[in-house]
Amino acid sequence: MREPFTQHAAEPSGWITTFESFADFLSDWGEVVTEAERRGWGIIGLCC
Predict the structure, then answer these.
(1) pLDDT tens track for 1-18
(2) Would you report the helix, strand and coil content of the chain in percent, each value rounded to 5?
(3) Are 25 and 16 in contact (CB under 8 A)?
């Protein structure tokens, strides 16, 4: 996943600038989704 991230998603001015921060984000988001599922909660995405 590192190469596609570097090619398509890495933006020096964005809030995720490295593959490592992207991987951390995915891991943390996985914990959120897993916990929500365990509790029977839903998840929505809102654009700010």
Answers:
(1) 888 888 877 676 778 888
(2) 60, 0, 40
(3) yes
Whether the CB-CB separation of 26 and 34 falls below 8 Å is answered with no
Contact 41, 34 (CB under 8 A): no
Measured distance CA(11)–CA(8) in Å, rounded:
9
* Sequence spans of domains, the chain: 2-39
Name the DSSP class of 48: -
Global pTM? 0.66
Return the percentage of the chain with pLDDT > 70, whole number. Answer: 92
Quick check: 11 and 17 in contact, CB under 8 A?
yes
